[in-house]
Specification:
It contains 10 helices and 10 strands.
Length: about 475
Amino acid sequence: MIKLIISTGICIFIFVSGFSQTDSHTLSLEESIRIALENNLDLQRVKLSERKSNVNFNRAKSNLLPDIDGNYNLGVSNGRSIDPFTNLYINRELTFSNAGLNLNLNIFSGFQALNRIKQTRLHLQAAQMEVEEATQNLILDVTIAYLLVLNNKDLVQLASNRLETTTEQLNRLKNLFNEEVGNPADFRDIQGQSAIDRTTLVQAQNTLQSSLLNLSQLLNLDGAIKVEDISVIKEFETYPYSPEEIYANALENLATFKVRNLSVEAAKKGIQLARSAHMPSISLFGQLNTNYSSAAQLFMQTSTTRVETGGTIAIDGQVIPVMADQPIYDVGNIAYRDQFTNNLNSVVGVSVRIPILDRLEVRNNIALEKINHQEAILVQESTKLQFRQSINQAYNDMMTAYSRYEILQEQVEAYEESFRINEVRFNDGVSTIVEYTISKNNLDNARINLANAKYEYLLRVKVLDYYRG
């Protein structure tokens, strides 16, 4: 979908013709959009948010896996302590060690894990739509900024042409002034008009530089940039879609509404997640442990000896001591590996947790999630209302610009003929400098208004195309 949006944005100027071959520092609209999609910091930030949502989704899925952890320690004890092997008190230096392996597997927890997976999946989908939304917005912003640069370039050219015409009259009247022919006030008036035209040119150039700076900020480029000189279509056609059709397309295609819809679904899933905390939870646990002690000893019988027991018996009046066999042991240490094997023990069990009273925490969480759901619905409805109003406003502005453009075309044609006549009359000395200046200013202002109306119409069309997705 994003690739389709990028392709559409690159072709968004399909009605533009006449691209010229320029140097490597001059950017076409296609190149500007490509650079913006690669460099724009706001778009990169949104993409990072999508990556975070993907991590949260993977984390939610991993909650279905068991917890398995192991432990191992080795130490030396001095003085009175408990022998971990015999559990008797000893007073000596003791080397001890133990190891264990623990497992905990959640079997049932009121579907909390599944609901959390579903909710984080919705959040991930919403984050992906936010990337698409940011991409759409960036393409629109770059296109509008590019059109504004073209508009300002046209205004600079008009101001330059205006100054050129004035300069021609200034040179002609200067020669007459030097020859002391004609009205000297005409020369001074044209000097003043030349100053006005130079100021207008400087202001137009400054506006152009500002629009170029705005475009370079969107592209995140340093240094001066240029844009291609292109000719836009001269014959305008009535926009073929009504505001209702545009709004219907926006609801279906714009990523903004998809984000709002997914946010509502995620908030609804949050209610189910909070409610699942009321359910009992069942988990399976297991342990595997062993230990080692340097005090552990192994006694092995090597021989026996006969010793008196202290008892006696009388046989035929004779007292005879009682003898008994006593084993003789060889004492040895038990190897580290042998102790870990011999002392191995395991535990397996099932744990059941039944929530009884939790200070109404679950109940309050459910209430908060319901509020979040209502807020998401309000944001969704508010977005629809804002877009409907924006579409109607953009459509009205577009139709107004279209009407103004048609009227201004007639005005420019009329003022061109008027100026041609007045210029001839002024050069022949029939009309005054005032009549000439008024006619010239009327034509120049009409041309500026026509250029502004043309680009205003194009801008509104691009905005409406954006709303249509």
